[in-house]
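[job 4471] stage=fold_predict status=RUNNING
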Amino acid sequence: MTGAPTTHRPGAGSFPLRRVLAVGVRRGLLEMRQMLRTPREAFSLLSTPLLFVVLSMLLDGDIPGSDVPMAELLVAGGVTTMVVQAGLLSLTQTLAVEREDGTLLRMRAVPHGIPVYLVAKTVVVAVTAVGGGALTLAAGVLVVGSSEPADARHWLILLSVPAVGLLALVPFGAVLGAVLPNAREALGFLMIPMLALMVFSGIYFPVSALPGAVQDAVQAFPLKWTAQGVRAALLPDSALSAETSATWELSKVYAINGAWALMGFLVAPRVLRRMTRRATGTRPQRTEAPA
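[job 4471] inference complete, writing structure tokens
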């Protein structure tokens, strides 16, 4: 005999997608628990919903061409803002920090560490966005008197549109956090263009009030469609008078966000792996010449 036969264990030497998802979700929930135990992070989660509720209380007037108060549009905009803030702005800064402190480099040393890392960050931003959006909506209904979804179909839209919007934004937040020089520059680089894109996407006021060229430009980005889908869930059809095509275009909401999500999750792992290949030790190499 040449030796005892080897026993094949299912999954040995492999790391299937199911395992990547399970480990990533577990890591993401652990990060979320640690975040909620930090007072500064907990206050950051509460501050944006509070801001939108206060602004909604101060806002007068109706959506043009309807009897729907502008405050309701602003509450819907607050829900969308939580999605954008969690999936793009906060994630980009977090990725820049964890690239500098060596977290991404250490994840590269773990089998399938980068996909696990992306799943974990998706869990963190999903919980943050859902929690912040729920707080904004609940405060809007209780304090401002804004509308909640009218029936089960509208609740399904409200749950699914931010989810697809997050999937569209998270991988690109990861890419930007990986390629921008540092956390401070990541925030500075993103803030002005992202605020402009959020304003022009109709998150805070009717997009139909913008010039036609601007309306056409923002249609390529997921922010516009995420905001429109949230409005479709929360606002009555009488508010369609302020929409560019007088319809919610839900098929485009899902199709365009889905295309961004597919493209992003194909690109993001490659970018993160390529970035970490240029790093050694516990911190990424810097571009400055050594002293």
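[job 4471] summary: Confidence is low (pLDDT under 50) at residues 1-14, 280-291.
[job 4471] exit 0
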